[in-house]
Every structure is written in C-alpha cells, then in structure tokens.
Amino acid sequence: MSKKSVAERRQAVGAGAGRNSAGGGRGGRAPSRRNPRGQQRRPWALYSAIAGVVAVFVIVVVVLEVTAGPATQDTQVLPAPASVVAAVTKVPQAALDKVGGGTANTPPHALTNSTRLTQNSKPEVLYIGAEYCPYCALERWSLIGALSKFGKFSNLKIVRSSLTDSAGPNIPTFTFAHGVGYSSPYISFVAREIYSNVPDASSPTGYAPFQTLTKEESSLFSSIGQDGFPFVDFGGLAAQVGSESTSPGPPALSNLSWQQVASDLSNLKSPQAQMILGGINYDTAAICKMTNGKPGKVCSESVVQQLEGNL
Amino acid sequence: MVTPAAGSGGASTLHPEESGSSFWSGPGRPGALLLMAFSVCGFGVAAYLTTVHYANVPLLCSASGLINCSRVVTSQFSVVPGTTVPITVPGMGFFLVSFGLALAQFLRPFRYAIRQAHFGWACLGLLTVFYLVFVELVELHNICLWCTSVHALIVLTLITTAWRLQPLEET
To answer: What's the pLDDT tens digit per position in A27-58?
Structure first.
C-alpha cells in the first residue's frame, strides 16, 4: 500500500467519524440503539446467556469430579483385561528398539560374589514387593513385559496401589499373588508380595502383611535390597532396587485406568511408554545375562545387547 | 480530530473508542490490536505444542502430579478424533482466523458485521475450550499449563469480542 493510500485511509476514517457525528452515514455500521439519555446499550442478555452457559459447564465438571473421584482405597483383585495383558506382554520389538533405555535412570546393576539363584535347575528371578507400594506398581508393568519374552503368565490379576502414598497415589498395576502363574523353559520366577493394599493401622507400613519370605530370601532382601521394595534379584547376577524410573516415576500413572496405561504404551513419546518400555528392555537384558543369551531371538536384539553391556 | 457536536443533546456523542483518530488509536482500533495480540500469543503457544509433538522433544512443563503437560499432550485426546493430527493444528488455525478477523476490524473499524463474525468465531472457540477442559479434569485428571494458557486466550478473545458488540452511534 502506498503512503498516499494510507494517508487517504486515515483521512477517510476521520472524515467518516465526522460525518457520523454530524448525522451522516457510513456503510456497514450498526443502526442506532440508544436509550433516552443517549448512552449506547450493551447486549446484556447475550452476556448473561454466555455467563449462564459457562456456569452450567463449571457445575457439571465439579459434580462429575466430586462423584467420580476415588474416596477409599481400592482393594479389589480382578482378572486382568485381555487387552491390557496383550498390550504389556506383546510390545512390538520396533517400539522397544525405538525407546531403548527410555527414561530408566536407576536400571539393574551387576552383582559380584552373590549367591547364584536357581530353582528347578533353572536360573531364578526373585521379586519382592508390596501391593500398596507405588514403585512396585510401576515396576510390575516392566517386569511382566520382560518376563513374557521368556515364558508365559497365567491368571494375571490387577490391583491398585495405595490411594494416599505421596510417591504417587492410586496407580493401576498388577499383582504377582492371588494365584498368578508363570512358566518358562529358561527361567523360574518367584514373587513375594509381602504387604497387601488393604489398610491396616497396626502394620508398620499401614497395610496388612501378606506373603512371607524364606530365610534365604529375607537375607538377600536385607543384604542387597536394603529392605527396600521393589527388589528384583536376577539369578544373583544383577539386582534391581526400586523402580527403574524415578522421574517422572509413579505419579505419571496416578489415577489412570489400566486401559489408559496400556494405550499410552503405544505412544512412544508418552512418559508411561518411556518408563515402562525402557524398564522392559533393561529387565530383558538382565534376564538374558542369566540365561546366557537364550533364547537367541530375544537376546540377540541389538537394544538388549547394548543395555546388557551397560549393566 | 473529531469532536462531539455541541448542543446536540447527546445524540451525537461519539463512541468512547472513537474519541481519538490517530492511525493506532482510531475508532475501534485499540480493541482490534488487543485481539490481534491474543491471536499472536495463542498461535505461538499452539505452534510450540505442535513442534514438540512432531519433533519428539521434551515439553517445558511439569510431568508429574496434577500439573502434567506431557500426560495431556500425549494422551489419546491430544489428536483430532479419528486422525493422527495433533489437536494443536486446528488450534493454530483458530488463532490464524482470529487474527484475520481482528486485522479486518483494524482496517475496517466501522464494519459491525466483522465484529459479529469474530464474536461467533470466539463462541466456537469456547465450545472447544469446554471439551478440552472436560477432558483434562474429568478424563485425564491432569492439567496442562500450556493448554490452559491457550484456553485463557480464547476466553479473553470471547470477552473482548463480546464487549465490542456494543452498537455504534446512530447514523
């Protein structure tokens, strides 16, 4: 636009206003709506309608939030939905390759001079945790994903972690108790949930004691695990204390449904996928160390070999 | 400078926005500039979120607790339903159209129809804000501060356009 045309436009605006002030017209202007005092009216009815719609929306959201929020600890133990089991036990290798270690910042570490764990002549993975524990809740997703590469779970059950734990409340997860089975030609899996998610004021943790440890398990739990859970001993060759990801950690799963977490696993950019798939890769690498690289199809994956070297 | 005609019994009193006639502060123009500013800010935030989506880089925001931007922008609700297009793309489109309407009001300050159109567009924006806030609070139980800033800009646009629906002086 030329300077002249801008000047003309400015002049036209001023002139237009002048004409209007003198009673002249200009196309596109609204017709007069003044009250007797000469003040312009505002569409207050319209404003009220908008405010009313907003108020209704706020009330609906508040009511839904109040009525939907969990008020008490969920202690139900339910069969795991097939879609959730499939999502965590059949993660595509391409997804695992892409995530690699993910956001796992406290992966398993190698053990030296530790007792070799075996059961039924197979190297043993020992898990010690608690159903109320938020870090255990996160760790189970990864451990199930990794163990499913070497064998098969049966009767998987779902539970929720503590509703009030500040480390991340109300996390959808699984339990290894309540009749859950696991079979594998390569390894044995022993799991102990030493506390349930049922509140118990007389318990030191605030939750009822559940399964008990053998003397050997208790010794390993104290010496290597420092009495902290989750504790996973990979055949005496490597150990995991706590969950593999602490940032963002359990809070990223708080108040989600199992289906939401399962859905998030296919979104590789999500913090849930980064933590859980990264954990699956590290746990797989640790188990491959136990099985001397068997099965080859699992342990020869480049991401597994790379992480195994990091242990 | 246009001044109210004396002795006109108030009938020719100018609209408050028309008391100045410079290029920037002329009739209706400060409001149009404000709307353009909202549009630029909103477009910027939506463009940032779109970039984060496609570049797969971390979002500058908390990723845990109630304020969890990552959780919201990577959820199943973060894309246009039935597509893989991030919902921030239509968000950019919203602010682009909003900027165009604000610019048209700046250049054609007396076209009342443009103000009405912008108000209607902002109402459409409010509906999307309702949907997205519902998803954040009821479905995800997480709030994304970036998204909230976009929602606030849409609401501010609605308030401004509603306020500018005041009819102009008589002809």
So the answer is: 444 444 444 444 567 788 888 999 999 999 99
Chain A residues touching B71 at Cβ < 8 A: 252, 270-271
Which residues of chain A does B15 touch, with a Cβ-Cβ cutoff of 8 Å?
A: 40
CATH domain B31-163 topology: de novo design (two linked rop proteins) (1.20.1440)
Number of domains in chain A: 1
Q: Which residues of chain B neighbour A30 with C-beta distances below 8 Å?
A: 112, 167-168
What is the reported pTM? Answer: 0.58
- Sign of torsion over alpha carbons A267, A270, A274, A279: negative
Mean pLDDT over all residues of chain A? 86
The interface predicted TM-score of the complex, written ipTM, equals: 0.72
Q: How far apart are CA A101 and CA A56, in angstroms?
A: 46
Q: List, for residues A184-221, the tens digit of each pLDDT value.
A: 999 999 999 999 999 999 999 999 999 999 999 999 99
In a domain, A205, yes or no: yes
Peptide bond into B86 cis (omega under 30): no
- Tally A–B CB contacts below 8 A: 142
Summarize pLDDT for A79-118 with one digit per residue, the tens.
998 989 999 999 999 999 999 999 988 899 999 888 899 9
Determine, yes or no, domain membership for A234: yes
Paired strand residues for A239: A109, A233
A284 found inside a domain: yes
Q: Which of A103, A260, A270, A274 to mutate to probe the B interface, most B CBs <10 Å? A: A270
Contact B76 A17 (CB under 8 A): no
- CB within 8 Å of chain A, chain B residues 57-76: 63-65, 68, 70-71, 74-76
Q: Cα separation of B89 and B79, whole Å?
A: 9
**Full domain range(s) for residue A224:** 79-310
Q: What is the pLDDT of residues B114-152, one digit of tens each?
A: 999 999 999 999 999 999 999 888 877 788 999 999 999
pLDDT tops 60 at residue B7: no
Is A13 a domain residue?
no
- Indicate the domain borders of chain B: 31-163
Using alpha carbons, list the distances in angstroms from residue B102 to A13, B30, B87: 17, 10, 23
CB pair distance less than 8 Å for A13 and B167: no
Cβ count within 10 A of residue A55:
10
**Do B14 and A21 lie within an 8 Å CB cutoff?**
yes
* The two structure tokens encoding residue B50: 């779109």
Q: Which of B102, A9, A14 is nearest to A1 (CA)?
A: A9
Q: To the nearest 10°, report the CA torsion of B65, B68, B70, B76.
A: 100
Least confident of A1-15, A270-284, B119-133: A1-15
CB contact under 8 A, B71 and A34: no
